[in-house]
């Protein structure tokens, strides 16, 4: 297939890496021709990149049509919420990613909560606020710990969970400058990220992962886009008996009702339904939905995927998931650690030279996936906050974790920061 991948982060690099692995596994079949728009320095070393704005639906559709693209895969949330998938579908081009209306599942917390209510999906009680006074009343109504969320997109930085009422109110006041906020019931438990492929009617699950949203060790510091992740989640076996039992429960309680509700409303969800879940004493609850692959969870889920990714994406894009077997995963552990620039997430320092990536990539079981990278005078440089994801697989979590950190220590970024406690609890 000719596949166009939209985006420029480590998530897109992970998707492209999985697709390229299919080429390596079956060289006699000719392989996929993959193009990325706009990509980054690491992606450009692997596939062709084009300077195309992924949020400009008309331009993307014209490029895909003129270049006989068989499948478009939309990585980030911003192009989806801008509606990039709609003109592609109008031109008859298969696209993995929901249209603008269905992408509001991520674009608006209020929309997502309404869909959950209509579908009977278990979640925390929300109170909506459009003013500081309304936010203050909601905080007092729900009590501490306080959970305040920006209603719209916030690059992973719109959620605050705190015991400090003034901090919660300040967070609400800041995001009220950009729209409404949602003050939500606090839910206590372990978080789980679970991805579902959807063709608008049927779903197929991938393997669960857990990410680390806080900047610093011990889950301290501000929220980020994600500082690391691991997959699978062995502690699910202790409560459910197996990962499959847990996944089946979430499929029936969360994923299918949500997808069927959107279908019922005439806005079918075709793409990746990211279910951000929390396992409470009362059962599984939804924290949030996203309309695309999560980052950095994708970096640990896809290396374990044994089923060809391209066949799953195309089946979802063309309404064929109902006849597609459940995806299969390798019996191995995967860990990723994110290397971020100094000053991230508030004010990341860019332009600094990154070295040692080739040394890390040369290690057994290690792959360095680029996020915010570019080239300057022949050097690899950081161009944003989260710069690289160092991914490692192993027979168990101890091996995978050791490999990931060994690869990370090969890499030098002046002022770079990373967490040292990714996956420690599953190793123990």
From TrEMBL:
Coiled coil: none annotated. It is an enzyme of class 6 (ligase). It catalyses: 5-phospho-beta-D-ribosylamine + glycine + ATP = N(1)-(5-phospho-beta-D-ribosyl)glycinamide + ADP + phosphate + H(+). SUPFAM superfamilies: Glutathione synthetase ATP-binding domain-like (SSF56059), PreATP-grasp domain (SSF52440), Rudiment single hybrid motif (SSF51246). One of its GO terms (molecular function) is ligase activity. Belongs to the GARS family. This is Phosphoribosylamine--glycine ligase. It comes from Curtobacterium herbarum.
